[in-house]
Fold this protein.
Amino acid sequence: MNIRLALESDIVSINEIYNQSILTGYSTCDTEPIPISERVEWFKNHNPKTHPILVADIDGIIVGWISLSEYRPGRSALAQTVEVSYFIDKNFQNKGIGSQLMDRIIKEAKEIGHKNVFAILLENNERSIALLKNFEFKQWAHLPEVAVLNGSKVGQVYYGLTIKFYTFIDETY
Ligand SMILES: CC(C)(COP(=O)(O)OP(=O)(O)OC[C@H]1O[C@@H](n2cnc3c(N)ncnc32)[C@H](O)[C@@H]1OP(=O)(O)O)[C@@H](O)C(=O)NCCC(=O)NCCS
């Protein structure tokens, strides 16, 4: 598997993988598929030097992606705090791909000079929480019952990592 920067030609696969997750009912607060035009805008808003999108590519097939996005764009005091998002193709989950992408993006975040990385997720997304805890993310916030999904109220949680406290196994970091 090759983990590399996303190209424009990956946008369709990235969007398809994201739209799969809407059907789970606990992976995102979007309830309708994202149109490709919106995903193109999102792609353009990610400067690869500061807010990269990485894809997991197996023989030319995109099986997952992870991104760093600006948190409250334009507010320069928050420029070194970024939101991480990650989605794995449903046929390739539970094979360690999410973990490999997370490992890589934390290293990229450090190299770029970001100080904090956080994820926003639904409180019942147990798999995603397990992944974040494996990478030393801690719960930073709980927003109770802020989402309504399939008629039920669900809270959101923020899981954050302060990079200077992260245990990099690879000594070059
Ligand atoms: C969450 C997601 C990114 C994880 O990626 P993945 O490649 O499937 O995860 P990995 O194989 O690297 O496993 C990550 C951890 O989750 C754990 N896990 C797997 N299934 C689980 C479950 N049903 N409940 C709790 N933990 C689970 C694994 O045990 C693993 O921990 P371990 O290494 O200590 O065993 C992926 O499942 C996904 O894309 N889900 C839908 C989209 C989504 O929820 N994205 C996150 C939005 S914030």
In short: The first helix runs from residue 11 to 22. The longest strand covers residues 138-149. Residues 21, 27, 86-88, 93-99, 119, 121, 125-128, 130-131, 134 surround coenzyme A (CB under 6 Å).
